[in-house]
Amino acid sequence: MTIMKRVKPAGLFIGKLKYEGDLLGEITEFCIKENIRLGRIEALGSVQKARLGFYNQETREYHFFNFNRPFEITTLVGSVSMKDGSPMVHAHITLADGKGNCFGGHLAAGTIIYACELTIEAFDGPELERGHDEDTGLPLWEMEE
Ligand code: ZN
User: Fold this and answer.
1) What separation in Å is there between the alpha carbon of 124 and the centre of ligand 1?
2) 22: domain range?
3) Structure pTM?
4) How far is residue 93's CA from residue 71's CA, in Å, rounded to a whole number?
5) Ligand 1 centre from 53 Cα, in Å?
6) Residue 34 and residue 63: Cα distance in Å, rounded?
7) Number of structural domains, the chain?
8) Going along the chain, which residue ranges are E strands?
9) What's the CA-to-centroid distance between 91 and ligand 1, angstroms?
10) What is the CATH number of the domain that holds 27?
């Protein structure tokens, strides 16, 4: 069932992330520090190497893969919500190589920043807590109408 909730803007943040930092880790750390419990994320820049995930819908397990080379971040989009009482960042990323070939997936720890410009929009609204979803096996938002 499709369920949507109304939220209100609660502030915008813009900045650059630390050279050689872990991309997912730096964003998550900032959200915890600023107590951003609901929001959306957008970023661009480049990475030194990447670790991405793909959720296998048949086995219901994430398969992770590594690229040990630089890429441009052409798009990073994500959300901030709550899991186990703490802000959790869920982000997907598209990366381009020197020939314009793109790869993408679920952003995992182990993706190392070369340069990154990040925007986060925080929201006031219902707290979205992640819990086990029977249909998919994923930790999706537990929402009621
Ligand atoms: Zn994902």
Assistant:
1) 23
2) 11-124
3) 0.95
4) 11
5) 8
6) 31
7) 1
8) 8-16, 39-56, 61-67, 71-83, 86-96, 102-107, 112-124, 130-132, 139-141
9) 6
10) 3.30.1330.80
Expressed in angstroms and rounded, the spacing between residue 90 Cα and the centre of ligand 1 is 6
Max CA distance (Å), the chain: 46
Convert the pLDDT of each residue in 3-42 to its tens digit.
999 999 999 999 999 999 999 999 999 999 999 999 999 9
Q: How many CB atoms lie within 10 A of CB 16?
A: 12
Q: What percent of the chain is modeled with pLDDT above 90?
A: 96
Residue 143 tokens, joined: 């929402």
Q: Which two tokens stand for residue 135?
A: 């249909």
The answer to whether residues 109 and 122 touch, using CB atoms and an 8 Å cutoff, is no
C-alpha–C-alpha distance, residues 94 and 143, integer Å: 28
Flag whether pLDDT at 144 surpasses 90. Answer: no
Cα 82 to its chain centre, rounded Å, is: 13
pLDDT at 145 over 90: no
* Span from the CA of 131 to the centroid of ligand 1 (angstroms): 14
